[in-house]
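the two lines:
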Amino acid sequence: MIWNDDFETLPREALEALQLKRLQATVQRVYATVPFYKEKFDEKGVKPSDVKSLKDLQLLPFTVKNDLRDNYPFGLFSVPMEQVVRVHASSGTTGKPIVVGYTKRDIGTWSELMARTLSCAGIHKGDVVHNAYGYGLFTGGLGVHYGAEKIGASVIPISGGNTKRQITIMKDFGPTAMTCTPSYSLFLAEVARDMGIDPVNDFKIRVGCFGAEPWSAEMRDQIEKNFGVDAIDIYGLTEVIGPGVSSACLEAKQGLHIFEDHFIPEIIDPETGEALPYGEKGELVFTTITKEAFPVVRYRTRDITCLNPEPCVCGRTSVRMERITGRSDDMLIIRGVNVFPSQIESVLMGIEGIEPHYQLLVDRQGTLDTLEVQVEVNEKIFSDEVKNLERLEKRVEKEIKETIGTTAKCKLVEPKTIQRSEGKAQRVIDKRNI
Amino acid sequence: MKVEQISVFLENKSGRMSEVARVLGEAGVNIRALCVAETSDFGILRIIVNDHEKAVKVLKERDFTVSKTEVVAVEVPDEPGGLAQILGHLDNEDINVEYMYAFFERSCDNAIILFRFDEIDKAVRILSSQGITILDGSKVYTM
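prediction for all of em together
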């Protein structure tokens, strides 16, 4: 089921001509309206008029997450605030989140892309969509919402949390499609079974769109078995637009179609920045070519994947990206929240007496991710009284929760039990099999 | 009037306490009294030994986290009501007991209870004024 036949099945030459035109307009716009980009371009000695072919994209400088943080909150906006009808922000960053903005047309573009995404999953008017992505500053909830409304489906804007109530609503309202993070879906299935409900037979759900965190093919099989649904992989990131950057199709379920008429993808070598050909694995980079309020040029996602240009049975002509297998930095995604070990480190180092000997243990108990922060006890923090040590544990847990937005357990361990290393400390032990 | 108690941090995994016992034994240190306060993740082992300086030294050499705390050793008549009487005196003056544990000594007719007080000096004064026998550290280590 293709939402926008005209654009989603454009022959490659027409698509590339369109991309070039839109790229040139975007580059001109950012150079003229966003001081950050003008500076970056000038530093590299590049002018917007230098972009004469799609290959010339490689002349342009990269943009990274820190550039967005450094320009918090609205420094990279390309339009005056009166034209911004919505702001969103990304999860789990220290102090300064990534803030993005949307003009009225951007919201229209986003709704279009989400309509395409849901249609990739075979969702249509008449479907009832159970949207358990978080509503608020997070792009997931409202992103799916506007897309579902655009296709004329009936949306249940349930957002995240309150799992027992969600199950009851699933039973009573009878949604035919669901949208949430992959791990949350497994948690829903578990809670449903605890409530005596069989997710396969007692629900009418036939398909789910899952994203916001990496998940393996094995996990997809698990979700499909647990719910009796087709599990479709959707991908996006706040910095680019939110969900709606790419989506797997129900027909093939092999890779995710990137909406190339709106985003130009590149794969680069994360060390050298060199552009890599189709089929080679590397870091995914995006350039937005239709966004008005918050365009980005060659944004490094840190996600590792490769691009596949083979025609797809569904008829869409856009290139497909393989499911994300890892990151080129040390960022973790825990229960859908972005967490950098350095954030935890700064919390620990801010507590008097704690030494820089700590370890993060990430695991999955059942269906939800768990994070345990192990801290070595030393004479400075040791107390003869249990209550003082417990107070310390609770303080660490509270400060971590305030910083990263999700809960971690603090475990005090004996000195010298955390491995010392010669070079870069192995801070994170991730036992999850993603 | 005060007794030096050694506290050792122990992770909740097997072999830790026996390691402490072994280390002290090898160093010729004798444990006079002990108790363990536990939580689900860790425990605090509290011990009274005959040579606390040596004990701290050898435990630290083995990378244990140790600290020293002053506790009070009180003689308690070994009969029903013995403890109630002592605690009654403390209650009357609003003295808070953080924790306590007891042990016996062959050469003594009474039980000995080790108390950890927030206000150690006040507690010692009050108990002494009531005629309660408080044992000096040196006596406890070598009894």
